[in-house]
C-alpha cells in the first residue's frame, strides 16, 4: 500500500546535490562541522551552530529512535504516519514511517532508514529496526 | 526605549461572515478596513500607516491602492509575514513606528476565504526537499506536539478536551460563531480521530472572514470616543529545529515572546484578567499557557481542566468569543481575532454572559506556522486606561 504511493522528486540545488547523489547509492548523509564538531540535518554549507564553512559530508548509520509521531487517519493518498527520528549521530529529522503497522508506533522505538523511489533521487523514510 | 503606553488600539472590526463565496478577498479587506476606521471614528484619509501580511492580495502596494488610502499622507508600510501571529507582530511594529514618529494612525487588515477555496501555497523554504514529501499539515504537526507532550508530562486527551469545552461555553453567546453548541469532554473524546492524538473537536474551524485594527497615538486616541485601550508590552520570537539539534516540540517560541512582553509591561501572568490565546488546536492553547507562565511547564493539563478557562467559572477566562475552536479562524490565521476579543473585554464590550468583571489587563498571544515544525510567536499585553 505505502509502496504504491507516489512521492515527489527532490528539486535539488548546488548546496544539497551531494545528498541526493549519495541517496541514489543507498547512503543516508548528514553534514558535520569540522570546526565545532556538531552534526546537523538537513544539510547546509554553513554550520548553523558556529557559522563555520568547514562542513563535510558524513554517511550516517541510518539508525535512530522515534522522537514523536502522528498518524494522519485520512488523506487523498490514504493514512500516513509523520514523525521525527533522532539519529544516533544526534540530529533529529522529519520523516514518515513506512512498511509497518502505523498504529503500533511508539516514542523511543528503534528505527532505521529505508529509501523509496521517486522520478528523481530516492527519498529517505524510516521503518522499525 | 520602550513602546509601553506609546500606542492605543482605537478601532476594531471583526467581519461577521464565516463563509463568503460571493465576495472577493480584496473586498473583505476593504470591508474590515472600513469597519475598523468607522469604529475609531476616523476617515480612511487619516490613515498614514498600513500593515498587512501574506493574505493581502498582491501585498502592500496593491492593497494600499485598492483600499484607496491617502498616498499623500501614507508614510509607513509593513508587510511582515509570520502566519497567524502576523497581526500581533504588526500591532507591536505599529507601536514602534508610532513611538518613533513614523506614523500616527496605523491600519492593520486581515481577510481571506479558505472555506470557499484552497489557499495558495506558501513559497518553499530551504527545507522543502527534506520535508515536503512527508505531508506535514496543521493537524499532524500539532498532533506530533501533543503526542510528545503526553509522553513527557502525562497530559491526557481529557485535559485537552476541557479547552474545547470552555470555548464552546463561550461560543453559545456569540451569534456569529460557527459552532454554538456547548460540548462535553465525552463529546470531544468521541469525535473522530483526525491525527493522533487529536480528535476532530481538538481542531479549529475553517472559515472565511477577516478583521482589522486601528492603532494610534495616545493623543489621537484620547480625542476619539472609544474606551481607551493601550499596548503596554509586546514580544516576538521564532523557533525551529535548527539543524535537528534543538528539536523539542513540548514548548513554543511563546517561551521567549511572553517574558519579553511581560517584562516590558512590568506585570506578571498573575495580573492578567483575560487571555486571548491562539487556539488552532487544543494543544496550542495548553502549550501557550505553559510557555507564557500561567502555569509550570507540564502542568498545562491540570491548569485547563475542570472549566478553569470558562468565564465566570475558572481563574483564567480565555477566548470569550468562542475562539478558533468554535467561532472562526479567518484565513487560517487566528492572531487578529485574538486582539479584537481582548479589546472588547477591556472596553467592556464582550457579551454580558462572558464579560470579565473589572477587566483592566488582557493578553493576546498567537503563533504562526506549525508548532510541530517551525514557527513564530507574538505576545501583546493590553491595558484599559
From TrEMBL, chain A:
It comes from the Bacteria. Pfam families: OB_ChsH2_C (PF01796), zf-ChsH2 (PF12172). InterPro entries: ChsH2_C, ChsH2_Znr, NA-bd_OB-fold, Thioester_dehydratase-like. Residues 57-116 form the ChsH2 C-terminal OB-fold domain. Residues 20-54 form the ChsH2 rubredoxin-like zinc ribbon domain. This is OB-fold protein. It comes from Bradyrhizobium japonicum. The lineage of its organism: Bacteria, Pseudomonadati, Pseudomonadota, Alphaproteobacteria, Hyphomicrobiales.
